[in-house]
Write a structure and sequence with these properties.
The structure holds 2 protein chains of 2 kinds. Chain A is α/β, with parallel strands linked by helices. In chain A, the strands form 6 sheets. Chain A has a 6-stranded parallel beta sheet with strand order 3-2-4-5-7-6, with helices on both faces. Chain A has a 5-stranded mixed beta sheet with strand order 9-11-10-12-13, with helices on both faces. The two termini of chain A are about 50 Å apart. Chain B has helices at about 15-30, 75-80, 100-105, 115-125, 130-140, 145-155, 165-175, 180-185, and strands at about 5-10, 35, 45-55, 70-75, 85-95, 125-130. In chain B, helix 1 (about 15-30) packs across helix 7. The longest helix of chain B has 14 residues, at about 15-30. The chains are: A alpha/beta, B alpha/beta. Strand 8 (about 170-175) of chain A pairs antiparallel with strand 2 of chain B. The structure holds iron/sulfur cluster (SF4) (2 copies). One iron/sulfur cluster (SF4) binds near residues 560, 593 and 597 of chain A.
Chain lengths: ~600, ~190
């Protein structure tokens, strides 16, 4: 054993390696991404790791590996689970051989997601048991137990951290590689009665799954991840708390401050530890539930009360004692517990500050996406258009002054939206923007659909040669794998031509006139057209120099600031100024300034 | 020793590395550490923070209002934003240099540091304002604000660590070719001038 300072996601990765995991796959998504990256960095001999093209493919790999007796970890964020739902739902019915841990990181807030969906519900829906860690240390222990559990009960198991657990750091005791379990897969054995899903098999297995989960609910009442902490000199008689996930640590802190109420910790919310909950509730009149996203513990406790005829009042999201959306904070929990005890906290008395700057996230200084959006905007000025955005850094193209994202739904959806709008309004110029990683993950069926069904729109692939938003993971267009192999790139151009597109042009967006020209020609061409704007993410390329404003030439018209909104540009004393710390010398502002006041920098090669 | 530290600023200013250096230094002294920080979309120029807690008997990496012993502000407005987290008598170390949000630049308004710094001065007895403009110029790189502020935090005494602790953390966590620059930036605040 040794001590290491680890992010929750790193702890999960090392825990999986310690459990003898054989295959790890997934698709990047905040807050889950670092799990797979850490496995890749620390993998022991024989461990296979990949960034799969999307979550569905990853889940299918997980099935295959498990059939062969391998231990598998598959990683994704909560939205990714929607993509992987099809194979996972079926895999639960088929069952597993090698342990399968499905790491799904939820994102209360949401901080970096489109929804606040709760994987604990997905667990109940798919009937897959769910471990819900409250800290990095617990996540490390849980992932190891989850593999045992998966194999023992023949089911995939969810490990479901939330953002603060995934991204929180702690100093932890972890195993040395010599202490890792060795798990040798037996290999695939033919057994169609087991591995081929048919209605009869599903019928039979459905009953077994329900019986197993019923039994697990009892067993999990004894599992130390679920436990009831007794009150100590409790500040109120017959009142208690129930909490799961990061909110459990907030509840522990609140107990230190406000008095040690009895506390039910739910570490495995599905199958719900009903027996444990029953004995906890039967001593209490009122229980306040502290959890994020949906009121899962709250509803289960109400269910237990109803089933066993208890009079205990269950308070939480459904009674207005906790907020219905957003993430919990220490303060929110402290305030709720204080109010629950009948001693509301005094409000702080700091006088109001001066108006604070509003800082929505923006595209980085020098980001090539800014140039791409600007070129399309220039080319289509005065035309009737729709610009369908997608998921990635380039969603930020929605902000002023570009305002180039009219819609954003989910990965790849922009293509479908653009096609439909075109069918209804053939005179509208429809554009779908998609990043290079998103292109491979979820745009291909949309392109095939458009070509076959005779849609007309322009697909703009924003190819910055990486998966930037999640921290620069490789994808099929980058020519490298997460295991470090150099491989042949899958060419976006060839893929599109292979599907049947005839207008496929690749342009450097930082060459503004060429980019504008390509967009105009694409828009004028019939059918499905594609422009690939290729220029590397600034995080991957070295600055080409820095732009500077010649104050003698700057007439203070603000055009540069007004038109492109680069964060390196600001205005002081009547002139534009460039922050050298943020400027990458992309040269876009220099191509816009009407007096040629900005020089320096050049488009990256 | 028990310490709650908040680092705050604008995505891209290097708060995460600063937080990591403090953690590594504390770990080397066998002090338990928990921390949490903004990762994701907000790192693209949004408001970002790190919470860092050292000492025994801590459950959550997150800090509550009125609990921080030290607030390390990489940007004046961001320090004001998170001031409610400072405990009475806590220390604030803040960079004097404002980062103009794109929204403000667009609307044609000017965003100035002075009202923010005045607000802090009126409320925080232990306030150390770091002249970031001069510091960055003298150290000779626009990208080492984080080390300059860490140096100032050391000087304020509120960090509970020594310069040597952070020096060895720099050597362990940062690529060698940047050691000299970062060590110089760390030392800037304690130079006589
Ligand atoms: S050259 Fe202009 S647009 Fe490009 S990063 Fe520098 S200031 Fe921003
Ligand atoms: S566009 Fe040129 S002239 Fe106008 S404010 Fe910017 S630098 Fe000055």
């Amino acid at each position: 054993m040794h001590t290491a300072f680890l992010m929750g996601n790193e702890a999960i990765a090392l825990g999986a390696l310690a459990a003898g995991v054989n295959l790890v796959c997934g698709y990047p998504g905040t807050p889950s991404t670092e799990v797979l990256e850490t496995v890749a960095k620390n993998r022991t001999d024989g461990v296979y790791v990949e960034w799969s093209v999307n979550e569905k493919t990853a889940m299918e790999l997980a099935a295959g590996a498990s059939y062969s007796g391998a231990r598998v970890l598959v990683t994704m964020k909560q939205m990714g689970l929607n993509v992987a739902a099809d194979p996972l739902m079926c895999l639960e019915y088929i069952g597993v051989k090698g342990g399968v841990v499905v790491l799904v990181a939820d994102d209360p807030g949401p901080i970096s997601s489109q929804t606040e969906q709760d994987t604990r519900h997905f667990a109940a829906f798919s009937k897959v048991p769910c471990f819900d860690p409250s800290s990095a240390a617990e996540a490390y222990a849980m992932v190891q137990e989850a593999f045992e559990f998966s194999e023992k009960y023949g089911t995939p198991v969810f490990l479901r951290p939330t953002t603060r657990v995934s991204h929180g750091y702690a100093a932890l005791e972890v195993k040395d590689p010599e202490e890792y379990t060795r798990h040798i897969p037996a290999g695939f054995e033919k057994d169609p009665g087991r591995w081929v899903i048919f209605p009869r098999l599903s019928f039979a297995n459905h009953r077994k799954i329900e019986e197993r989960n019923e039994a697990l609910s009892g067993l999990l009442s004894e599992n130390p991840f679920n436990r009831a902490l007794p009150g100590e000199n409790a500040p109120a008689p017959r009142k208690g708390l129930a909490a799961g996930g990061i909110s459990f640590t907030y509840a522990m802190e609140a107990r230190e401050k406000l008095g040690k109420l009895p506390l039910l910790k739910v570490g495995v919310p599905f199958p719900f530890p009903e027996k444990l909950a029953l004995s906890f509730l039967s001593e209490l009149d009122e229980v306040l539930c502290l959890e994020e996203l949906d009121p899962v513990i709250e509803r289960h406790l109400i269910y237990v009360c109803g089933k066993y005829g208890l009079k205990t009042r269950i308070l939480g999201k459904q009674t207005g004692h906790m907020p219905l959306s957003g993430e919990n904070t220490r303060d929110l929990v402290n305030d709720a517990v204080s109010a629950f005890l009948g001693t509301p906290r005094r409000e702080e008395t700091l006088p109001p500050p001066p108006p604070l700057p509003v800082r929505p996230p923006v595209l980085c200084g020098g980001c090539p996406h800014r140039a791409s959006f600007y070129a399309v905007k220039q080319a289509m000025k005065g035309r009737k258009t729709i610009f369908c955005g997608d998921i990635g850094c380039y969603t930020l193209g929605n902000a002023k002054p570009l305002e180039m994202v009219d819609t954003c739904l989910c990965m790849g959806a922009g293509l479908g939206i653009a096609q439909a709008v075109n069918h209804l309004e053939p005179d509208r110029s429809c554009f779908a923007f998609v990043g290079d990683s998103t292109f491979f993950a979820s745009a291909l069926p949309g392109v095939v659909n458009a070509v076959y069904n005779q849609a007309s729109f322009t697909l703009v692939v924003l190819d910055n040669s990486t998966t930037a938003m999640t921290g620069h993971q490789p994808h099929p267009g980058t020519g490298r794998t997460v295991m470090g192999q150099a491989v042949d790139k899958v060419s976006i151009e060839n893929v599109l031509r292979g599907i049947g597109l005839t207008f496929v042009e690749t342009v450097d967006p930082l060459n503004l006139p060429a980019a504008v020209d390509a967009v105009k020609r694409a828009d004028a061409a019939p059918g499905v057209k594609a422009i690939i704007f290729r220029s590397p993410c600034i995080a991957l390329s070295r600055p080409t120099g820095r732009a500077v404003v010649d104050p003698g030439k700057c007439i203070g018209c603000r055009k540069c600031i007004r038109e492109i909104g680069c964060p390196a540009l600001s205005f002081a004393d009547g002139k534009a100024v460039i922050d050298p710390g943020q400027c990458t010398g992309c040269s876009l502002c220099g191509q816009i300034c009407p007096t040629g006041a900005i020089s320096g920098g050049e488009p990256h090669a | 020793m028990r310490k709650n530290i908040i680092l705050c600023g604008v995505g891209g200013q290097g708060t995460v590395l600063a937080s990591r250096l403090i953690s590594a230094a504390a770990m080397a002294r066998n002090i338990p550490v928990l921390s949490a920080e903004t990762i994701g979309m907000a790192q693209r120029g949004g408001s970002v923070f790190s919470h860092l807690r050292m000492g025994e008997g801590i459950y959550s990496p997150m800090i509550a209002r009125g609990e921080a012993d030290l607030l390390l502000g990489f940007e004046p407005g961001e320090a004001v934003r998170l001031l409610p987290f400072l405990r009475p008598g806590g220390q604030v170390v803040v960079s004097s240099r404002p980062v103009t949000p794109v929204m403000t630049a667009l609307s044609g308004e000017e965003y100035r540091a002075e009202p923010m710094l005045d607000y802090l001065k009126a409320r925080v007895p232990s306030l150390l304002v770091v002249d970031a403009e001069s510091a960055l110029r003298e150290v000779g790189s626009p990208r080492v604000l984080n080390l300059i502020l860490l140096g100032a935090a050391l000087k304020s005494g509120a960090l509970g660590l020594e310069e040597a602790d952070l020096q060895s953390a720099i050597r362990r966590l940062i690529p060698e070719k940047f050691h000299e620059l970062n060590l110089r930036a760390l030392h800037w605040a304690s130079e006589e001038r």
